[in-house]
Amino acid sequence: MTSFERLPGPLAARLAGYRMQRDALGRSAASVFRLAGEGLPALYLKVEAAGPFGELADEAARLDWLKACRLPCPEVIARESDGERNWLLVSALPGTDLASASALTPLARVELLAGALLDLHRLPIASCPFDHRLEKRLPVAKAHMEAGTVDEEDFDAARLGKRAAELFAALESMRPTDEDLVVTHGDACLPNFVASGGQFSGYIDCSRLGVADRHQDIALACRSIAYNFGEALLQPFLDRYGLPAPDPARLGYYQLLDEFF
């Protein structure tokens, strides 16, 4: 999809005057397009195949909730579905994602990520309607595996060559006995956090936001930091967050769980 030809009528009319360009900002499973037009505010349009594992409706609900919590995130402008595809139109945040924000030092970026996670994790879990505790997420992971949507060729290097069923058995046998619950982003990688003018400007790709163990976010943040900047910045990130010595077993567990999403 590279034009407006296949958009539902209401969306096509709303986007008159815009140009569409595919964009890789964030880590959404949907196709993402940046929209710009003369004198018009920048927007993002996401499109995914309709189906049981679609995430755009989840993302819209979470963005609305985050807005109500007064945390910075894109505004939901429109949602459409024709039974074959789902579309989500959102506002663009000012700035650049933390993986790409080369005007900032890597240290500044990991400290912004830590501060953004602290703000999110301080929200009261009783106020969050999205439950991503293991009791809920493991059955979803199993459903992904049984549907054949787990990409075994995209496993982290340590797990390449293994089968999804083998990893799921490990998830069940290694399941932590308790959870340190907070409101998590769910996909806390550097590309999913945006900064402008040296300040954090918002959360994106929020379809997996929900109440879960804080290690869900810390694990994926550490993996992303190591990948983008090297392991030397892991400790500054953890110190800024206030968890200088996270449970290594839990970090490994939530990185393993992420293979299914």
UniProtKB/TrEMBL annotation:
Mg(2+) binds at N192, D205. Its EC number is 2.7.1.95. Keywords: Antibiotic resistance, ATP-binding, Kinase, Magnesium, Metal-binding, Nucleotide-binding, Transferase. The active site is at D187 (proton acceptor). Residues 23-251 form the Aminoglycoside phosphotransferase domain. One of its GO terms (molecular function) is metal ion binding. InterPro entries: AGP_Transferase, Aminoglycoside_PTrfase, Kan/Strep_kinase, Kinase-like_dom_sf. GO terms for biological process: response to antibiotic. It is an enzyme of class 2 (transferase). It catalyses: kanamycin A + ATP = kanamycin 3'-phosphate + ADP + H(+). The keyword Nucleus does not apply. Pfam families: APH (PF01636). Belongs to the aminoglycoside phosphotransferase family. This is Aminoglycoside 3'-phosphotransferase. It comes from Rhizobium aethiopicum.
